[in-house]
Amino acid sequence: MKTIAYQKCANAACGSTYEVTQTLTSCVKCGELLDIRYDWSKGEVPRTLKSFEERWQRRRFPLDHSGVWRFRDLLPFAADAMVCTIGEGQTFLQNATCLGRQLGMWPGQLYLQYEGMNPSGSFKDNGMTAAFTHARLVGARRVACASTGNTSASLALYAAQNGFQGIVFIGTGKIAFGKLSQALDYGALTLQIEGDFDACLRRVRDVSQQLGLYLMNSVNPFRLEGQKTIMYRILEGLNWEVPDWIIVPGGNLGNCSAFGKAYEELLELGLVKRAPRLAIINAHGANTLHTAVNRLGMTWNGGHPDNSKIQGLYAGMDEANYHPHTVASAIEISRPVNLIKALRALDVMKGVVAEVTDEEILEAKALIGRYGFGCEPASAATVAGLQQLLKNGTIGRNERVACVLTGHGLKDPDATVHYHTGIKTKDAKQPAAEPTWGSRANKPIQVADDMPSILKALGMAQDTLDKTVPTGYVETPSANLPFVEY
Ligand code: F0G
C-alpha cells in the first residue's frame, strides 16, 4: 500500500519525521513522544462523516464490523491485510437521561460511552488493535507493556489471538483481580515487579529497548490512532452532531490525547465545524495533570510548554518519596507519559482538568450502577467530575455531555463488594477493619431459610401467601436511592 502516514515528533521545536515502518516510542533527536501524521492531500478522505454509515451494510467483513477499522480512512497507516482485529469497538453511546436527571441535568443531555463492552472489557482494545497492526507490519513477534491492569489484559488477548508472545509488567498488589485473571488466562508471561506503575513503565521501556521487544504502552503513537475512534463513535451516536462536552478519566493521559488528536484532524479535514470541550478527571491521590494545569499553570503554549515546571514537580515527588494512591487503581499514576500531548488536547478542545476524591468516585460508581451501567472506579471519575463541574457552573445543566466509561464493572469486583458490604475480599487473611460502606450501599440481608423470615425481608405481610400473588415491581428495602427533583 502506498502510505500517506509518517511519524512526527510532538515537540514543535524539533518536528523530526520518521517512516511509518520504523519502531520507535520517542524521537531519536530530542526524546519527545511521536505522533502519526498523514499527508491528507495525497489520500482519499471521506467528504462527510455520514458516509461511514455505508460500512454497516458490509459488516460481515471484519474490518467493516470493527468499530475502529470502519473508520480506517481516518487512520490510514496500514494495508487492510495487515490489520489485527477481533471485533473491538462494538460500543454504543447510551442515553442516560435518568442518571442525568439525578444529577440535575436537562432530559436527554447525558450520554455514557460504554467502552467496557469491548472484547477485553475496556477501551484499551481500540488502541491495541492499531498497535498490533503496526507490530505485524514491522514483523514483531514479542510484545510487552507495563500496566495497572487493563492494558495488560488487552495485550494478552490480542497476543493470544494473533500469534504473538505477550509479556506484561505489573506492580506488586496494584492490579484488580479481574484484570490480572485475564492476563494469566490468555497466557501472557506476567512479571510482577517491586514498585508502582510508574516504576514498571520506566523498567519496561528500558527492557524493550535493550531486548527489542515491541512496546505496547501509550508511548506507542499507533495506540492513540485506534483510540481516536471513540470520538467518531460518539459522533455517530449523536447522528454526527458534536456534543458540548466529553469527560474522560486521566491516568497515563493517552486516551484524552487521542481525543484531542481526533478533533484536531476532523477540524483540519473540515469534517466538523467545532470541537466539544474536554474535561479530564484525575483522582485526588494521582493528580499530576491537575497540579500541572491548575496550580502550575502549564499550557500547550503553541507547542512550547514550559517543561521546567513538570520537571520541578517530579523532583519534588522524588524528594518526598511520593507514590500515588487511589481506589481507582487503573489511574494510580503520578508521571503520566502523555502529559504534553494532553496539554495539546486541552488546547484543541478548550479543556479543563478537575480532581475528585476516592469517596466521590465510589459514590458516583454506585449511582451509575444503580441505573444499570457497570463500570470500574476509574471510569466513575467521569460522573464524579461531572457532578463537580455542574455544581461550580463550568458545565451548564442544559449542555450535552458524553462521559466515557472506560472499563467494565467486573474488572474490579472487590471495589464494588467493599462499597456495598464493607468487606474487603481481596486479602481475606487481613483482619477486616471496622466495616464501612457507601451511602448507596445495597447490603445483602442475612435471612433465615424459612418463609416467615423471607416474607419479612421482602417487606410483605405474613398472610401474603393466603391472598393472590402480587405482581409487578416491588421496591426492595435496600434500594437506597433518594430521588432529587430539580
Ligand atoms: N480508565 C481505565 C479503566 C484505565 O484502565 C485507564 C488506564 C484509564 C482510564 C486512563 O487512561 O492512561 O489513557 O489516561 N489504564 C492503563 C493500564 C494505565 O495500564 O491499563 P489513560
Structure description:
The protein has a domain at about 95-120 and about 225-415: Rossmann fold. The protein has helices spanning about 60-65, 95-100, 125-135, 150-160, 175-185, 195-210, 220-225, 230-235, 255-270, 290-295, 305-320, 340-350, 360-370, 375-390, 415-420, 450-455; strands at about 5-10, 15-20, 35-40, 95, 110-115, 140-145, 165-170, 190-195, 215, 245-250, 275-285, 350-355, 400-405. The protein has about 475 residues and is α/β, with parallel strands linked by helices. A six-stranded mixed β-sheet has the order 4-5-13-10-11-12, with helices on both faces. The protein has a four-stranded parallel β-sheet with strand order 8-7-6-9, with helices on both faces. A three-stranded antiparallel β-sheet has the order 2-1-3. The chain is globular. Bound molecules: ligand F0G. Ligand F0G binds near residues 149, 376 and 407.
Structure described in brief:
With 486 residues, the protein is an alpha/beta fold.
Entry keywords:
13% strand, 4-stranded parallel beta sheet, alpha/beta, 13 strands, single chain, Rossmann fold, disordered C terminus, binds ligand F0G, 486 residues
| Helix/strand structural class | alpha/beta
Name the CATH architecture of one domain: 3-Layer(aba) Sandwich
Average pLDDT = 93
Question: Runs with pLDDT <50, length 5+?
Answer: 482-486
Question: Outline, from the CA principal axes?
Answer: globular
